[in-house]
Please model this.
Amino acid sequence: MNTSFLDACRKKQPEHTPVWFMRQAGRYLPDYRRVKGNMHVTEVARDPELASQVAVDAVNALGVDAGIIFADIMLPLEAMGVDFTIEENVGPIVNKPLKSVDDIRALEDFVPERVGYIFDGIQTTLRKLDDAVPLIGFSGAPFTLAGYLIEGRPSRELEKTKEMMYNKPEAWRLLMEKLTKMACSYLSRQVSAGVDAIQLFDSWVGCLSPDDYRAYVSRYTSEVMTSLSGKVPRIHFCANSSSLIEELLRTGPDVLSVDWRIEIDDAWARCRNGTSIQGNLDPVLAMSGGRPMREKVDQILAESADRDGHIFSLGHGVLRETPPENLRLIVQAVHEKTRVAA
Ligand code: CP3
Model:
């Protein structure tokens, strides 16, 4: 097995800096578009054969050091009785957004068997990867899932979510507790099915101030992290996270994923407790390519050269218009420039 990704998660010297990309299996890849055809993304995710194929195709097409299971953060919510669709080019739409404490009481307990296809997909993906690279599992974090459930659709400011957080403490606590319980159980089942690491996606929590993060979110994220402590490496991802780095570190991840709004040098300086860092190329640079992309890759590597535990990645998911060749160039450059002489 290529252990560079797990070594970097654990702060051991890897043979080269590992690289993988969020949304590495997606519409920018011809293989993905071919397998998907006219199907919906959730149909692909529900079919262990197809889900494993697109996950493994991405690893092979790019030469990355880790695979990620093909699923979506919304899928386990279906197992709690939430009715949603994922609209192309928009994102998740929840048909009856949560408004009251009664709506939240009516959410069903998460039953992992109802998303059994995810765990079958993990086992099929592991078989196809044949130990070449580790496999990352994931879940949405309680705050980001609460955001979709309350807003009902993607939202920039998450006003309704924050309003519930501030003004309906009982509803907020109950919702966050239910989502935390789900995430712990879902991730633990993914680990039992064989994933080698997990990433918690708290994509939208960057809209909170550090004080609010501490008051309304931190304890739930910490509970998810703690539930997996000592089992597999845990990555925390949040876009727009630079104002929250210290708070996110307190939740106890092994790896903190940072985006391009902060220079990685600053991120290293602020990770005083020795957490590994994943990041942080702007996905637009990966899409637009050329010299600006190559120069930023070099800068990120230079600023991480004396640090243990760097995982090279983008600050958010691969954009649809990205030429796969650009990602292959990044992987090659990172590997060549960081390979430790044998
Ligand atoms: O290789 C991979 O990383 C793919 C697996 C994956 C998907 N969704 C499949 C998918 C992962 C890791 C996700 C996570 C996810 N889903 C997040 C967290 C990551 C982030 O980007 O912040 C979020 C917020 C979602 C919710 C969601 N699902 C959005 C916002 C969208 C985009 C809608 C669009 O059409 O642009 C989706 C749909 C989705 N999930 C796609 C994929 C590959 C694209 C739609 C498609 O292929 O038809």
Observations:
- The pocket of coproporphyrinogen III is lined by residues 22-27, 41, 58, 68, 70, 72-73, 86, 88-89, 91-92, 138, 201, 203, 317 (CB under 6 Å).
- The longest strand covers residues 135-140.
- The chain has one domain: 4-338.
